Amino acid sequence: MKSQNLVHMLQNRESGYTRFNKLSQSAPFTYERQFYKAITPCLTIGILIPPVYLRKFTPDGSKLLAFSRDQRSVIVYTYKGIGCKRVGDLLSEANVGNKETYNNTKDNSQLTSKIFERLFESKYVLRLCQGDSARYYLHREFSVFLEHGRYVLLAGMCILNGCNLAITDYERYPDLFDKLDPFSYIFFVVDLQQGIVTDEIQLPQDAICLSHNYGISVHGNTIAILSRLRQAIYIYELVNGRLIKHDHEIAPRPRDCAFNVASASAMLDVNSLLPITHIKQRVLSFLYRHIQQDGRQSGQKYQDFYKNFDFIENMIIEKMQLVDNDLILLRYEQRPKDTYVTPMLTTGEPEPPRRLYVFYRMSVEDVVGVYQDDSADLLEIVVQFYDKMCNVRSLQTGEAPSSPTHYFIRQTCLNPNKSAHFMRQAALRFNPSVPVSTQSFSTSPYLNYNVFYYDDRLVSPLERPKASSTEPIMFRDRETNLVKFRLNTKARRPHNDMAPRELCAFICHPFEPLVISIQKCMHVYAYKLHIYNHSTTVKQSYYD
C-alpha cells in the first residue's frame, strides 16, 4: 500500500520517484490525485450568506456567481482561497479543534456569520433586467461559461399574456409543437473581467428549457439553442463577445431550400398535410439504405422499417448536444398525444417514451448514424467517448469528470461474455444519459469516482439536487477503504412520506477542498461550508 503521508507524497513528487524507487511513468497530473486524499474538505460549518441565490464557480475557480433575490441582477464574488490569512484567523479564534462538524453554540458566532465574507469578496453587481428588459427575470439555474470563463451566458424569461402563433410558423416549421406554453427569452453575454454586458439577443414567443442548461449546448465558441416549440436549433458564434447568428436553422428545411409563404386564402387546418422535415427524410433514407437486401432477415427489416415510419414522421426533438463544431447529436422522442391519459398503475414506474438517437453533420446536412434506444452500439459509444461527450474538463489537470454511472458501465457492461438481453437492458438504462447538458458536471477532484467511493444517490458530479441524507455522506479511499472525509448534510427533520422532501444541492470549487451545500425544504434554506482544516481528525467507521 502506498504511503498516505502528505510529506512522503511531497517528497515523491519533488524527486519524480515512487515509493518503490522507480521513475513514475504516469501522466504529469495523475500523481496529483494522491494529494486530494490528504487535503480534503473535512470540516463542516453552518454559515450565513447574503440574501442571494448562489450559482457556481467559474472554471478557473477565481470567482463565484450569484443572483439577487429579485432575479434581476448578477453578483460576482472574488474567491480569496482557503489559505487566506483572515480565514485562518477566524478558524483559530473559533477554537474549532479536531471536530469534523462545528456546532455553533452562540447565536452571534463570528465563524458562522463572517467566514463567507472572508472567503468571498463582492467584486461587482450588474443589473441586467432593467429598462426595456425590466419585465424579464433571470433564470437562476442557467449559466454557461465561454472562453474558459472570460464570458458567461445568462438568460432571462418572462410570461406572455396571450399568444397566437402565425399561420406562417406552421408552414415554416412543420414539426411545430404548439402544446407548450411559450415565453419570451433574452440572453446576455457578460464579460466577467470588465463587468459589462457585451451583447444580448431576444427570442420572443418560444419554448426553451433553461433549467440546468438543458436546452443549450456549447462547443468552443459555437452555441446551439433548441426551440422545443418550433422544433428548430438556432446556431450562434461568439466573436469578440458578440453573438453572431448563422443564417440557417437546423431541422426545418435544407440550407438552399426556398420557402414561399402561402396566400392568406390558403388557410391551414387540422387536415392539412405538411412536409416531413429534411432531417427525418435523411433518417428514413439512412435506415432504408442500411437494410441488406441479400440478407436472410431483410424481409423482417423492411417490415420493421414501414412499421416505424409513422413514429419517425411524428417524433420531436427533445434534447440535443454539440459533439464538436460540426457534429450534433439529436434525441428524438415520441410526440405526446392530445388524448394521452396517464395509466393508473399501482406498481412500477410509467413506461419511458420511445427514443431515437441521430448523429447529424451540419456542414454537409447529412445523417451519419441512427440508433434505437436499446442499441448496444450506442452504449459502447457513450462509454468509449465519455470524456468527449461530457464536453467539460478541469482547467487544472485537463481531466474529464468521473461519474458513478460511467464507472458502473465500464465495470459491468463492457464484458464480451454478457448476453444480448443484458446489453439491451443496460442500453435502455444508460443510453438516455446522452445527450449531456452543457457544463452540467463538476470537475472537482473530490467527486472523482476513480479515487473516492461514496453514495451517488446523495451526491454526484452531475449538478442536480439530491435528497438530503439521514447521515453524513462518507467518502472512502478506493485503494485503502479508509474514510477520508464526510459531508455533514443531514436532513433537518425526520423523513416523512406525507411531507415535502428536503433537497440538497452542492457547489464545488473546481480544484480546492471547498464545497458549499444548500439544503432546501419548502422555502427554507440552510447553508453549510465544507472546508479543509489541518487540525480536523476524521474518525474511521467499519460498520457500514
Description:
This protein has about 550 residues and is of the alpha+beta class. The protein is about 20% helix and about 30% strand. Strand 14 (about 230-240) and strand 15 (about 240-245) form a beta hairpin. It is globular. About 30% of the residues are buried. Residues about 25-30 have low confidence and may be disordered.
Short description:
This protein is an alpha+beta fold.
Bin the helical content. 10-25%
Overall outline: globular
Structural category is alpha+beta
Largest sheet: 6 strands, mixed
Q: Average the pLDDT over all residues and give the rounded result.
A: 86
Radius of gyration: 26 Å
Tally of contiguous helical segments: 12
Which regions are unreliable across 5 or more consecutive residues at pLDDT < 50?
24-28
How many β-strands, per DSSP? 26
Please state how the strands of the largest beta sheet are arranged side by side. Answer: 5-1-26-25-24-21
**Span of the ends, CA to CA:** 23 Å
Residue share in β-strands: 25-35%
